[in-house]
Design brief:
The structure holds 3 protein chains of 3 kinds. By secondary structure, chain B is mostly beta strands. Helix content of chain B is 0%, strand content 52%. In chain B, the strands form 2 sheets. Chain B has a 5-stranded mixed beta sheet with strand order 2-8-7-4-5, with no helix packed on it. In chain B, strands 1-3-6 form a 3-stranded antiparallel beta sheet, with no helix packed on it. Chain B starts with 5 loop residues before the first strand and ends with a strand. The N and C termini of chain C lie far apart (42 Å). In chain C, β3 (177-178) and β4 form a beta hairpin. Chain C has helices at residues 2-12, 29-36, 43-54, 65-69, 72-75, 79-82, 96-107, 118-129, 145-155, 166-170, 204-214, 225-237, and strands spanning 85-87, 92-94, 177-178, 181-182, 193-195, 200-202, 248-249. The chains are: A alpha+beta, B mainly beta, C mainly alpha. Chains in contact: A-B, A-C, B-C.
Chain lengths: 155, 108, 250
């Protein structure tokens, strides 16, 4: 990379940072987890949280969660929440499962405003909570556009 | 376009008791409420905040969505093929607008 | 014949066919998997929307695309692999979006779609999707030569305050990093693409405008002759690579 391209690249990074609004006050990751569980202790384990450790664009990061559970009427997963450390809001999504789910296996795509830690927390039918954490590095995307792009006139 | 753009993938047939995976996509910008527009004003939040799936009328899966869910939300989950019938899918956005689609499944 | 040799020389001065690599090879395994799964690839929402539009009667004629072109799965196969083509009406090249709008205005007697509108992107995606897997096969039409040459001239013209050309990145530094992304070879085989940065589908012209803004140049207008000629050159340069629409890129 020569000097000119370096300048272009850094310019892009600076404008990218500048358009991010200031973060409003939000609960910490653990405070948000505590709100989800209603104060019940969360244990590590039984949750497999699949998310790439390094993502090339934070706008759309695929995640998959698999919770160890027999998934019967007596013993199943009721809810799974994904909670983050550094987005403007801590809560990302809450899945509601049932004994008819067959497996406690869900996927979605999420936005990550920054490199951070995420937690997947599962609520079991017996009232216990289990979790897994994952660290994700979000690289800055090249060639970001201003908000004005994306619409043209009528030809 | 009048009809919402939705895609769901439900197997047409399944064996009784088989666990099937269902993938869903719906076109929605999922405006977070955290972005600034050209005029320096905050662009108001406009997201799908609820997704539900019923199977022959019974709620089998749901999700509460927050602004961190990517634009054009993708949600995949599993359910047990218990009987032939209809799966109905329902998305609700911040304006209360409801988008729906359905799929038939034959269980043998 | 002399000009044919010139054009062939122009085109072969880039990578030879076997050396060409689609942009999909420069994205992460996760993004590649997303493109490959038709039930997760968000670009398929535009393809699905385009199918509905294909069958919608519009304009004063109350005709749909299907009224004349029947089943797109048959009649549109291979079309995106050969566009842009020479347009007999305008007496210059026309790209796929231009042809869709020309059909709307002249045949259906309906208003043209705006550039980057959901409708134009959807119909473009639906039509281009019918060529998925087919190699880019530009027409051998001598009326296009001067336009291809102009497109190539634009590709190598230094522009903007950064004062670089397309080749500075996409030929000389393909495979190297720009911020978190690998620089691809700029083969436009998957348009309209779903770009994670856009959180939407978008056209090749939008993508090129992003590049031009990035090097601090005034981007060419949507639908301008410069844009069409660049598209024409890039598709000739990409000859042989398979169409991927809807591709997914970071």
């Amino acid at each position: 990379m020569n000097r000119r391209e370096f300048v272009a690249c850094v310019g892009g990074v600076l404008s990218f940072v500048a358009i991010r609004p200031a973060l409003a006050a939000r609960p910490t990751l653990l405070e948000a987890v505590n709100t989800f569980t209603g104060g019940v202790e969360v244990r590590a384990g039984r949750v497999a949280f699949d998310i790439p450790p390094l993502v090339e664009n934070g706008n759309s990061v695929g995640v998959m969660i698999d919770v160890e559970s027999p998934v019967t009427a007596e013993d199943h997963v009721k809810r799974i929440a994904i909670i983050n450390e550094k987005n403007p809001q801590a809560d990302m999504i809450v899945f509601h499962l049932s004994p008819q789910s067959g497996r406690a296996h869900v996927s979605t795509r999420l936005r990550l405003a920054d490199s951070q830690t995420l937690m997947a927390v599962a609520e079991m039918s017996d009232g216990t909570y289990w979790s897994a954490a994952a660290d994700v590095i979000v690289t800055l995307a090249a060639c970001v556009e201003g908000v004005s792009e994306g619409g043209g006139g009528v030809p | 376009m009048a009809a919402p753009r939705i895609m769901v993938n439900v197997p047409k047939t399944a064996a009784r008791g088989e666990i099937v995976e269902i993938k869903t996509l719906i076109a929605h910008k999922m405006e977070t409420g955290h972005r600034m527009g050209l005029n320096g004003q905050r662009i108001p939040r406009d997201i799908i905040n609820r997704f539900e799936c019923t199977y022959n009328g019974a709620l089998v899966f749901a999700a509460d969505l927050f602004p961190a869910v990517s634009a054009n939300p993708f949600i995949a989950f599993t359910t047990v093929a218990v009987a032939s019938g209809t799966l109905k899918f329902r998305w609700v956005d911040d304006h209360g607008k409801v988008s729906t689609t359905s799929a038939k499944i034959t269980v043998t | 014949m002399k000009r044919l040799c010139v054009v062939l020389a122009l085109l072969s001065s880039g990578a030879v066919a076997s050396d060409k690599r689609s942009g999909v090879e420069y994205v992460s395994p996760e993004t590649r998997a997303l493109q490959a799964d038709d039930f997760a690839n968000p670009g398929m929402l535009w393809v699905g929307g385009g199918e509905a539009l294909w069958n919608e009667a519009v304009g004063q004629t109350k005709k749909s695309c299907a009224s004349c072109h029947q089943d797109a799965k048959q009649t549109m196969k291979g079309v995106a692999a050969r566009y842009p083509v020479f347009d007999e009406v305008r007496k210059r090249p026309i790209d796929l979006q231009g042809r869709i709008n020309q059909c709307r205005v002249r045949r259906q007697k309906a208003a043209a779609f705006a550039f980057e509108s959901e409708a134009l992107l959807s119909l473009s995606a639906y039509i281009a999707h019918q060529s998925r897997g087919m190699p880019v096969t530009p027409p051998r039409d001598e009326r296009l030569w001067s336009y291809i040459e102009n497109g190539k001239e634009l590709y190598f013209r230094r522009i903007g305050q950064i004062d670089i050309n397309c080749a500075s990145c996409h030929d000389a530094r393909a495979g190297q990093r720009l911020s978190g992304n690998l620089i691809p070879e700029a083969h436009p085989t998957g348009y309209p693409i779903y770009r994670l940065e856009w959180q939407s589908a978008g056209s090749l012209q939008r993508r090129m405008r992003g590049c031009m803004t990035g090097v601090r140049a005034e981007p060419y207008a949507y639908g301008s002759p410069e844009m069409i000629n660049l598209e024409l050159y890039l598709m000739n340069r990409a000859a042989g690579l398979p169409i991927e629409t809807p591709a997914v890129r970071p």
